[in-house]
Amino acid sequence: MQKLLLLEDDISLIDGLTYSLQKNGFDIQVARTVCEAENLLAENTDFDLFLFDVTLPDGNGFTLCERLRESGNPVPIIFLTASDEETSVIRGLDCGGDDYITKPFKLGELCSRIRALLRRSSMRNSGDGILRSGELTVNLAEGRVFLSGESVEFTGAEYRLLCLLLKNSGRVLTRGMILDKLWDGAGNFVDDNTLSVYVRRLREKLEENPSRPEHLKTVRGFGYQWKE
């Protein structure tokens, strides 16, 4: 049973989420303050995913996320936020969060996002050198990409972008985060217009209908997300 830490101070939401997530097969530990969460984290190192509220009585989920990332903790983090303002979302992603969901939200959507992040985390830690998403397979050792068993050719930058997206499957990556990770063979940073070109080329090679992509999604105002 996968173990989740819920950091939330709304008692009614805690009760509803605990009951529903347990029915979906998750083991839930609850903290109502940042201090309680830190105590639980000091006692337990086997959490599979964190659900953090943003505004809490003794601080906020962003600062706790930053401390966890600075300490090298890679466990996926989803922010539960009452605000979908761009500045709040970007801060959550930039401080190391993997995804966010705006209150009020549907339980089915939250469970889907949790499972997507757990799959990505499992894939990242599998150590077999293979990235998979449906019919798409990337052999990292050989630098080769296969779609439905057929080899697909990519330029170096396209390949790096694809691997970055797959390793972060389900997570919204801002354009700034992607640009920080990608550069060409000469060490020159990719600019914003070039990134748009690479995204279009990936869709042309991987999507059944590039104009209506099912996997490489644009998250308007933020960046991109690879969806299973």
Automatic annotation (TrEMBL):
<dbReference type="InterPro" id="IPR001789">
    <property type="entry name" value="Sig_transdc_resp-reg_receiver"/>
</dbReference>
<protein>
    <recommendedName>
        <fullName>Stage 0 sporulation protein A homolog</fullName>
    </recommendedName>
</protein>
<dbReference type="GO" id="GO:0000976">
    <property type="term" value="F:transcription cis-regulatory region binding"/>
</dbReference>
<dbReference type="GO" id="GO:0032993">
    <property type="term" value="C:protein-DNA complex"/>
</dbReference>
<feature type="domain" description="Response regulatory">
    <location>
        <begin position="3"/>
        <end position="118"/>
    </location>
</feature>
<dbReference type="InterPro" id="IPR039420">
    <property type="entry name" value="WalR-like"/>
</dbReference>
<dbReference type="GO" id="GO:0005829">
    <property type="term" value="C:cytosol"/>
</dbReference>
<dbReference type="Pfam" id="PF00486">
    <property type="entry name" value="Trans_reg_C"/>
</dbReference>
<dbReference type="InterPro" id="IPR001867">
    <property type="entry name" value="OmpR/PhoB-type_DNA-bd"/>
</dbReference>
<comment type="function">
    <text>May play the central regulatory role in sporulation. It may be an element of the effector pathway responsible for the activation of sporulation genes in response to nutritional stress. Spo0A may act in concert with spo0H (a sigma factor) to control the expression of some genes that are critical to the sporulation process.</text>
</comment>
<keyword id="KW-0597">Phosphoprotein</keyword>
<dbReference type="GO" id="GO:0000156">
    <property type="term" value="F:phosphorelay response regulator activity"/>
</dbReference>
<feature type="domain" description="OmpR/PhoB-type">
    <location>
        <begin position="128"/>
        <end position="228"/>
    </location>
</feature>
<keyword id="KW-0238">DNA-binding</keyword>
<dbReference type="GO" id="GO:0006355">
    <property type="term" value="P:regulation of DNA-templated transcription"/>
</dbReference>
<feature type="modified residue" description="4-aspartylphosphate">
    <location>
        <position position="53"/>
    </location>
</feature>
<feature type="DNA-binding region" description="OmpR/PhoB-type">
    <location>
        <begin position="128"/>
        <end position="228"/>
    </location>
</feature>
<keyword id="KW-0804">Transcription</keyword>
<keyword id="KW-0805">Transcription regulation</keyword>
<dbReference type="InterPro" id="IPR011006">
    <property type="entry name" value="CheY-like_superfamily"/>
</dbReference>
<dbReference type="InterPro" id="IPR016032">
    <property type="entry name" value="Sig_transdc_resp-reg_C-effctor"/>
</dbReference>
<dbReference type="Pfam" id="PF00072">
    <property type="entry name" value="Response_reg"/>
</dbReference>
<dbReference type="InterPro" id="IPR036388">
    <property type="entry name" value="WH-like_DNA-bd_sf"/>
</dbReference>
